[in-house]
């Protein structure tokens, strides 16, 4: 197959994922993602470059870890001084289309040779001209959300949007940021929700491309704002979890013993007066279950929207030579480590592990389940490899996944790195992580370091860092991390 493939990249935001293997009960329903995985390959050990939106999104664009591309927090916005895969695709003859959330530093997707719809900064789709035009064309009302619970966060009490979030109230997000800490239900048709708004825009573009038939390859990327909170699924998706129990999460009652102190300062439900997590959680699991169900229903809703895009691709016959990738930017700490939500300055499995499925008819054999270590920085390298090109203006940290899934090679890395520079609120936290086999080591500057046996302790409750029996394992993990740091020119020295 010599013709360059089309490329579909579906990118969710902030998705609860790794908990699925542990709760032994309800798991989010992802029929469309699962179908894609069955048609190609699913990866079990994928780690984001960093568990924070802006920095890891720039890693997806550049194939670089944050310590190199320079965006270490959501709102540190250095100019783009490194090659972006979208521009490289355009130079290779691709037509690029981008729909949805940007949140990857200055500008937006149209600054990188893309057509479509994207928004500077975090963005709120519900106040854009594109959304206004969409609801008019489809004769839809604007999205309305009925609030069922508001998370008690003192720091937000004076912000206008927070004052509007009252239990039982109908709410429309009209501010510049729409990441409210609340759950509820979208009472208008599902097509009014941002996920279906974006899916419909993408489907319209696919229809135009099918009519053009100019033989030029295209890249279409869709970045949903969900399933990041606020969790406002429609009743249709909530009903899928109505009669299902959600067992208590394994680290829900953790007292954070052996953890770095900043675990106490990250987002919890609710905050204490000193802005620290309350241990034990004053919110009982029965109430937490409803929050988790809303999160799961939101995941299923976004899955349905993503499935629309893939179905439209097949309906139009555009799937014959198309690489499809579906993933998310980072995970979600929901209900973990004493009652956290969102994410924080830590590198727990809940926030660093992410889903990934790929298919390419005729190139990627179906039904594969891969356990090799994969990173966010591999995604753009893989896309460019499929397009027959590569990054040329600067070295990158990622590797193409294509030789791994096409069977061209069995050789692959034995460990994987991730990093964080903190959540960006308050003090900076500098951490580096390495995972190899059963073990995970986390270096944090000026704080307690961490060592876990993920096989025996998947919830990371027992920090082995001071256990002398693990000294040799610790030395090996540190040496592995130093190799990654050397390879990626990481200026932070752990030893």
Topology overview:
Blueprint lengths: L5 E7 L18 H9 L1 E7 L5 H10 L3 H4 L15 H7 L3 E7 L13 E5 L9 H9 L7 E6 L9 H5 L5 E2 L10 E5 L7 H19 L5 E6 L11 H4 L46 H31 L6 E7 L20 H4 E2 L1 E5 L7 E8 L2 H9 L15 H5 L9 E5 L10 E6 L2 E6 L5 E4 L17 H17 L8
Pfam families: Sulfatase
Family: Belongs to the sulfatase family.
Keywords: Calcium, Hydrolase, Metal-binding
Report on the structure:
Residues 5-388 form the Sulfatase N-terminal domain. GO terms for molecular function: arylsulfatase activity; metal ion binding. This is Arylsulfatase A. This protein is of the alpha/beta class and 495 residues long. It folds into two domains: 6-138 and 185-413, Alkaline Phosphatase, subunit A, CATH 3.40.720.10; 430-495, 2-Layer Sandwich (Arylsulfatase, C-terminal domain), CATH 3.30.1120. It is built from 13 helices and 16 strands. The protein has helices at 31-39, 53-62, 66-69, 85-91, 129-137, 160-164, 194-212, 235-238, 285-315, 349-352, 378-386, 402-406, 471-487, and strands at 6-12, 41-47, 95-101, 115-119, 145-150, 170-171, 182-186, 218-223, 322-328, 353-354, 356-360, 368-375, 416-420, 431-436, 439-444, 450-453. The strands form three sheets. Strands 1, 2, 3, 4, 8, 9, 10, 11 and 12 form a nine-stranded mixed β-sheet that branches. It has a four-stranded antiparallel β-sheet with strand order 13-14-15-16, with helices on one face. A hairpin with a 5-residue loop joins strand 15 (439-444) and strand 16 (450-453). Helix 7 runs parallel beside helix 9. The protein is globular and about 65 Å long. The N and C termini lie far apart (49 Å).
């Amino acid at each position: 197959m010599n013709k360059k493939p089309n490329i579909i990249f579906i990118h969710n935001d902030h998705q609860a994922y790794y908990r699925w293997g542990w709760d032994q009960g309800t798991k989010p329903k992802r029929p469309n993602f699962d179908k894609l995985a069955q048609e190609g390959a699913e990866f079990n050990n994928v780690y984001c470059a960093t568990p924070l939106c802006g920095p890891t999104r720039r890693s997806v664009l550049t194939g670089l870890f944050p310590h190199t591309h320079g965006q270490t927090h959501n709102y540190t916005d250095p100019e783009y001084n490194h090659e972006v895969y979208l521009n490289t695709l355009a130079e290779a003859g691709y037509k690029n289309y981008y729909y949805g959330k940007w949140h990857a530093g200055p500008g937006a997707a149209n600054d990188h040779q893309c057509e479509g719809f994207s928004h500077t900064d975090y963005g709120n789709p519900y106040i854009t001209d594109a959304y206004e035009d969409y609801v008019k064309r489809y004769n839809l009302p604007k999205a309305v959300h009925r609030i069922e619970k508001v998370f008690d966060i003192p720091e937000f009490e004076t912000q206008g949007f927070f004052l509007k979030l009252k239990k039982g109230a109908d709410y429309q997000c009209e501010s510049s940021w729409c990441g409210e800490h609340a759950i509820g239900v979208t009472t208008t048709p599902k097509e009014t929700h941002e996920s279906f708004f974006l899916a419909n825009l993408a489907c319209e573009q696919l229809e135009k491309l099918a009519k053009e038939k100019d033989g030029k390859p295209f890249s279409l990327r869709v970045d949903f704002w969900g399933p990041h909170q606020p969790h406002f699924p429609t009743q249709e998706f909530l009903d899928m979890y109505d009669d299902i129990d959600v067992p208590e999460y394994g680290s829900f009652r953790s007292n954070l013993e052996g953890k770095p102190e900043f675990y106490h300062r990250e987002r919890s439900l609710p905050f204490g007066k000193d802005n620290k997590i309350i241990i034990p959680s004053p919110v009982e699991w029965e109430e937490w279950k409803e929050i988790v169900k809303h999160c799961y229903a939101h995941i299923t809703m976004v899955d349905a929207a993503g499935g629309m895009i893939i179905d439209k691709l097949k309906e139009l016959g555009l799937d014959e030579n198309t690489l499809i990738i579906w993933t998310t930017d980072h995970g979600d700490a929901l209900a973990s480590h004493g009652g956290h939500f969102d994410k924080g300055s830590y590198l727990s499995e809940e926030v660093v592990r992410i889903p990934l499925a790929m298919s390419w008819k005729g190139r990627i054999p179906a039904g594969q389940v891969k356990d090799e270590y994969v990173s966010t920085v591999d995604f753009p390298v893989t896309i460019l490899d499929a397009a027959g090109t590569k990054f040329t203006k600067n070295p990158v940290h990622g590797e193409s996944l294509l030789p791994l899934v096409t069977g061209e090679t069995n050789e692959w890395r034995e460990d994987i790195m991730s990093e964080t520079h903190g959540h960006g609120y308050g003090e900076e936290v500098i951490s580096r992580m390495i995972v190899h086999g059963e073990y995970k080591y986390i270096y944090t500057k000026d704080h307690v370091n961490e060592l876990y046996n993920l096989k025996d302790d998947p919830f990371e409750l027992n920090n082995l860092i001071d256990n002398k029996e693990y000294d040799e394992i610790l030395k090996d993990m540190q040496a592995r991390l130093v190799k990654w740091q050397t390879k990626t020119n990481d200026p932070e020295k752990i030893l």
